[in-house]
Amino acid sequence: MSNPFDLADQAAYAAWRERKLDTAPRRIEDILVALDDPRRLAPAERAALLERCATANMAIYGSNTVGDPDKEIPRQLGRQLGLKRLDSHWLTDEDAISPISVRGAEERSERREFIPYTDKPIRWHTDGYYNTPERTVRGLILHCVQSAASGGENQLLDHELAYILLRDENPDHIRALSRDDVMTIPARMDDNGVARAAQPGPVFSVDSAGFLHMRYTARTVSIEWRGDGATRAAVAALVRILAAPTPWTLHGRLEPGMGLVCNNVLHDRAGFSETPERRRLLYRARYHERVAETTVIAAG
User: Fold this and answer.
1) 153: which of 2, 144, 278, 290 lies 20 to 30 Å off by Cα?
2) Model pTM?
C-alpha cells in the first residue's frame, strides 16, 4: 500500500501533498462553523465540523451558548464527533475537563505553577507532549466561556502542513524527528520523588490507521533533544518555520460561546490582560481519539 509518510514513497507523498495544499484553508473564516447548541448538533452542523477536521484537522465554531458555564458543552460535543476517551491527569478536574483560568474558586493552587493557568504567552506546541504513547492526545476541544479583557489570541497551524514544509526543505529533517528518542521530557519530581518518569518519543509518528501525529513543544527548558547534528538542524528548521507566518497560519481569538475542535494541531497563545469583569475562562478537553465519523448518541 502507498504511504505518503514513507520517505521512500515519493509518488504517494507528491499526490497527498498536492491534495493537501489545494484544500488547506488560508483564513480562519474558512474553518468557521456556526452552531446553535454544541450539546445537540444538527446533522448539517455535525457534517460541517467533520468535513473541516477531515480537510484541515481543525474547526472553529461559534454558538448560542454565550454566558453558559456548563462543562457538559465540550463533553457532549466531543461524543458527537467520536471523541470519548478523555485524557485525565493530576491537573484535570474529576470529570477530566480542565478549566483554564488564571484565578478563581475552581482553580487548585498547584495549577498556578504551569503556564496555561497564567496570563503569560505560550509558545508553539501540541497538547500532551509529555504523555506516554498509550495516552497519546490525538483530539482536543477548547471551549470559551469568557475571553480576556485584551489579548489571548491564538495561532493555529495544521501539523501536516508543518510536515510538508520540513520535508520539502530536507527529508532528513523528517527522518531525524521521527526517531523514538529524539525528544525527551525529563522526569517531574515532587515531595515523594519521581511523580512522572522521563518520557522520550518522536516528534512525527504515524498511527495504526495511517494518520500523522505530531508531538512538539517550542519550550527550551524542561526538554531534552537528541544531541546529534541531524536533530539540531531539524529542530532549528522547525523553529524557523514556525517563527514566520506561513500562508496557512491561522490567527484568531476565541470569544464567549466559541471553540476549537481539532486533531491536536500546532497552536500557541498570546499573553493577555484581565479585569475584574473580564476574567478569561476556557474549558479544555483532551482525547485519545481523533475527530471521526461515529454513530450519534443523543444527549440526555
Assistant:
1) 290
2) 0.92
